[in-house]
Design a protein that fits this description.
This protein is an alpha/beta fold. The chain is about 30% helix and about 10% strand.
Length: about 280
């Protein structure tokens, strides 16, 4: 299974043994949307609700940190996922939260793909939907190490001096430059010194599908990315940074990492240096 599947592919394979569809929708607080209620009202037939905002490590000092292997396995078993199952994740979110689910699932050894265009494209094509919260028997999924690297704040601070890794920020330009205030109270705006800016939506087509490889490469090049060097992606809270990571994976780039704490952690620490204005 490719890591990006079309709505036509999913419609053909719905109900295949060992294929589990997960709704990974989550929203920013100012969207005033309830993903659980929306899932209950309408979702892709057979899908299960991932509840992505709670799929975190609550014991980590990192805000909304990626879950541990044990925490991820527990959630998968509760959703009826078994060893060897293939996952397709989708969302109906402006911030493309399925990419975060993809990163977490792959990190913990699951075979996982993103539904290209998500629920929006599925709806636009007039495909079937169902309502309710499905009940499924517990699965026997076990986590194992998979591809994916997470950077901590201390590592990001160390990189400021050695500059061995490029830092690319997926937030919109106005938040990156500091022209607008952060939507979270008490969080200053700006960016990590030396980072580049590539708003995640520049990697997507108008219908929410991912751009083709040529346009993905162009977007990274226009952001000043050296595709021969290692990259760390960041954003507001570790979500849209995963959109960049997914696009880089599509391009075959493997020396990449996620700064999971992202700006919500960096900005909250008065000791970290911050910059405003455009990228250098």
């Amino acid at each position: 299974m490719d890591n990006l599947v079309s709505t036509a592919w999913l419609a053909e394979h719905l109900g295949d043994p060992g294929l589990v569809v997960l709704d990974a929708s989550a929203h920013l607080p100012d969207a005033a949307r309830d993903p659980r209620a929306e899932f209950g009202a309408a979702h892709i037939p057979g899908a299960r609700f991932l509840d992505l905002p709670t799929l975190i490590d609550p014991d980590s000092p990192v805000p909304s940190a990626v879950p541990t292997a044990a925490q991820f396995a527990e959630r998968m078993r509760a959703l009826g996922v078994n060893a060897g199952d293939r996952l397709v994740v989708y969302d109906d979110s402006a911030v493309k939260t399925s990419a975060r689910a993809w990163f977490i699932a792959r990190l913990h050894g699951a075979e996982v793909a993103i539904l290209d265009g998500g629920l929006g494209k599925w709806r636009a094509e007039g495909r079937d939907l169902e309502s309710g919260m499905p009940e499924v028997p517990a699965g026997d999924f076990e986590s194992q190490p998979g591809p994916g690297t997470v950077r901590l704040k201390a590592e990001m601070l160390a990189n400021l001096g050695r500059k061995s890794e490029q830092v690319i920020d997926a937030r919109g330009r106005a938040r990156f430059t500091g022209e607008v205030e952060d939507f979270r109270p008490g969080v200053v705006s700006g960016h990590i010194p030396g980072s580049r800016n590539l708003p995640f939506d520049l990697l997507l087509n108008a219908d929410g599908t991912f751009a083709d490889d040529k346009d993905l490469r162009r977007a990274f090049a226009e952001a000043g990315t050296d595709m021969d060097g290692p990259i760390v992606t960041t954003c507001g809270g570790g979500v849209t940074a995963c959109v960049l990571l997914f696009a880089l994976d599509r391009l075959g780039k493997r020396d990449v990492a996620l700064y999971d704490g992202s700006w919500s952690e960096w900005a909250a620490d008065p000791a970290t240096p911050k910059e405003t204005g455009p990228a250098a």
